[in-house]
Every structure is written in structure tokens, then in C-alpha cells.
Design brief:
The chain is an alpha/beta fold. The protein is built from eight helices and eleven strands.
Amino acid sequence: MKVVITGAHGKVGRAATQALLDAGHDVLATDLSRPGFERREEGSARYMMADLTDAGEAFAVVRGADAVVHVAAIPEPTGNPAHVVFRTNLMATFNVLEAAVRFGVKRFVNISSETVPGFFFPERPFLPDYAPVDELHPVHPQDPYALTKHFGEQLMNAAVERSDIRAISIRPSWVQNEGNYEQNLGPQIRDASVLSPNLWSYIDAYDLADAIVLATESELPGHEVFYIASPDNVGGHDFAEVLHQYYGDKIELRELDRVDSSGISSAKAQRMLGWTPKRSWRDYLDSDGRALAK
């Protein structure tokens, strides 16, 4: 297929672009990075610079596509003014999706976020109702980032109601690659009391890229939402034990697939997309959270 991927030069975008190329797709990558004008390497993606908050530029990159993978976004709410996060993320999603609908694109893969339930950056903090968290968990987003991701999923619902497009929203957990495993996850591996709202969850960028390819190629009708998280937790802790130790009875513990379960369930993605995670923090770090010797 001819696949447009937005946010192609970010951590997720790079991994997904390569995975789509490896799967045999013709990929047009777009981002805010300036293009180069040397000969393109054989087998690489074509590139077009575009500001997707501009409707005309969004339409220019989407035209002719069979599928769109929308990764582009300001990735969290604390590094930019709130109105910039909200405007950028929501308008980019709206413009790219509108272009896809108008041009008759068959498949839209929307990269949403694990933050949609709302307990990641709230001004009035609260905890998940239960764990592992799944797609049925209630959503109460407060911050501008989670709100844009929630509204993005609602835009997908509207698109499938008014057109023949098929949409999948992926909610990745905290994305890691070989360059940041130690920095991001090392402290939690050494000490489970280093808490995070996602309950010791994470996802490898390349496992996420595999899920994105499956979503792009999927024939699932309508709009489906999938969490994508590694099946094990950061540090390989006994999940039931650490959940009770640090949260008491404030979070209901539901059935676990494994002792060292993730705090986010990807069972739906494994069942409906056929996604099989292949990588773990253990492939990069030792039991002390230090990078393995190369």
C-alpha cells in the first residue's frame, strides 16, 4: 500500500517507518524536519516536510494514500504551553483525518496514548479503578495532552460514521528504545517504589512498530481502540505484591496473565490484531537496571 506516516522523525515514527518499509509498503514520511536534497537511499521512505496544523499541507501529504499512520504530536503536556499542546495535537489530527476522509483513504491508524484515562497528568490526582487497566476502563482526562488524544479517538468514531474509512487507535504505554531504556526504566528496576501512573508498564518501540504495521494492514471494520504494552512489568516484579504494597486496596486487582504482569493489558490487541510482543527490558538491561554490555 501507499502509506503516509506523520511524525516520521520521532522515536515511534522512525521505528514504524522502517517496519512499514520492511513489510513492503511504499511509504511517504512527513514531519517538521527540513528535507534533504541528496539522492535518496534505495529502499528508504520518500519525505515531505509539512506542518499538519495547516489544512492545505495536511491535504497535500495525504493525497494518493491508501493508508495513513498518524503519529505526529507534541508527546506530553509539560514541555509546551497548554494551549499550544491542545491546538497542535487536535488540529493536526483533525486535518489529517479530514484529508483522509475526503480522499477516500481506506485505513487510518491513530496513535493515541495510555494517558487517555486521565490519571497521568491530573491537577486533581486519582488512581485507576482497577489493574491491569484495559480498554473498558473509564476515561476522565484533565490535561491538554490526554484531552487531545481522547478527542482524537472521538474524531475516529465520527469518521467511520460518515465515511467508509476503517480506523484503529493505538494507546501505547511509555515507549522505550535502545537509547533510553537505562535512563527511563533503570530507577524502577532497582526500586519498585519509584512509581509511575502506568503501574510499571512500558513498550518497546519496535514491538509498537510491529503493532502499527498490523493495524495498517488490518481489515477490522469501524473504529477499534487497543492498548499496546509489554506483557511484563518494569523490573519483573510480582505485580500483585507490589500493587498491594504501594497502593493497598485502593486499586482493584483483576485476573493476571502472569506473575510479573504489566499494569496495562494488551490482551485485546493480541486477540484481535494478532500482535505478539517479542522484546523486553531484559534484552537491554541487567537486574540492576544497567545497560547490558554490547
